[in-house]
Amino acid sequence: MKLTLLSGTNRPGSNTRKIVSIIADLYQDLGHPVEILDLADLPQDIFLPQSYAKKPDSFGRFSETILQSDGVHIVTPEYNGGVPGILKYFIDMLKFPESFEHRPVVFTGLAGGMWGALRPVEQLQAIFGYRNAYICPERVFLPHVSGLLSDDGNLTDASIVDRLRSQATAFVKFAGQLQAIR
Fold first, then answer.
1. What is the mean pLDDT of the chain?
2. Nearest to 148, CA basis, from 121, 107, 99, 113
3. How far is Cα 124 from Cα 105, in angstroms, rounded to an integer?
4. pLDDT for residue 115
5. CATH of the domain at 60
6. How many Cα atoms are found within 13 Å in the side-chain-facing hemisphere of 31?
């Protein structure tokens, strides 16, 4: 089974990338390595206005990774009470409807505030519901994320690691069951 882990921001030095790295290790431990897509690596020509009409060839790797994936785990920060603009733009640039139609997705949200990105995850659930994705109900929210990370980028609370491991385990099962019927 091929799973993709999406870092939902292009902000330099983002805590999202640190959490993505931790989650990737958890999938590896479960015997399901993931391919990481980092929006910081998006090609600059995707931002040209003509990209709406014709996607640049440099975007092909991103599009194909999603299309070939048996499930997508999205890690999103909360920016100004919502989904980062770059994440929404990325979703909009992907082929419709095949990029997410009947594709399993799961969400991890992180924020500096107390709600742990509840709002952007709810927004993403609406977007992916519209795109006819299968939404795994095992969401994880990480409030006050800076306080959860050590200086070397590891989580300081074992219960958070356990929740992320439980989410990854549930998503592998969820995506595997759906793969059998797709």
1. 95
2. 113
3. 10
4. 79
5. 3.40.50.360
6. 1
Q: What is the pLDDT of residues 4-27, one digit of tens each?
A: 999 999 999 999 999 999 999 999
Residues 6+ apart with CB under 8 A from 114: 143, 144
CA angle 21, 55, 18 (to 5 degrees): 10
| Domain extent for 150 | 3-181
Whether this model's pTM surpasses 0.85: yes
Domain tally, the chain: 1
Residue in 25, 32, 1, 4 with CA at minimum distance from that of residue 106: 4
The percent of residues above 90 in pLDDT, for the chain, comes to 94
- Name the residue with tokens 């107390």: 114
**In angstroms, rounded to a whole number, what is the distance separating the alpha carbons of residues 68 and 90?**
16
Predicted pLDDT at 27: 98
